[in-house]
UniProtKB/TrEMBL annotation:
Pfam families from the UniProt entry: DUF2730 (PF10805)
Organism: Parasedimentitalea marina
Keywords: Membrane, Transmembrane, Transmembrane helix
InterPro entries, per database record: Phage_Mu_Releasin
Membrane-spanning residues: 6-26
Protein name: DUF2730 family protein
Top-level taxon of origin: Bacteria
């Protein structure tokens, strides 16, 4: 009987050991796959964060090189001064244009007078 009990115990223990071994072996594979997935996602996230960091640095450099509020105000005042000077130049050129028209009229009269004298002879 002892032999029969040992055989029955082995008959139960061997499949039970196989179940336990299979459970641990598959569990380890599942954990390894999950860790690979998590590791892959972490690597992707790390690369994206590095890219974002580079973009933020580029934006900071761009913003640092932009003109300040005072610079823009000075530029606005300078442009206003230039506008005033252009108006003064335009007025001066208008006056010069009027003088040139009068001179052209005088020269035309002289030419006409000289041409008429030549025809009358």
């Amino acid at each position: 009987m002892d032999y029969d009990l040992a055989l029955k115990t082995l008959g139960v223990a061997i499949p039970l050991g196989g179940i336990i071994y299979t459970w641990f072996a598959t569990r380890q594979k599942d954990v390894d796959e999950a860790l690979k997935t998590v590791s892959s996602r972490l690597d992707t996230g790390s690369k994206r964060m590095d890219q974002h960091d580079l973009e933020i640095q580029a934006l900071q450099q761009t913003v640092a090189s932009l003109p300040a509020k005072e610079d823009m105000h000075r530029l606005e005042l300078t442009m206003s001064d230039i506008g005033g000077e252009i108006k003064a130049i335009a007025a001066h050129i208008g006056a010069q244009r009027d003088v040139m028209r009068r001179l052209e009229t005088v020269v035309t009269r002289h030419e006409d007078h000289l041409l008429d004298k030549g025809k009358g002879k």
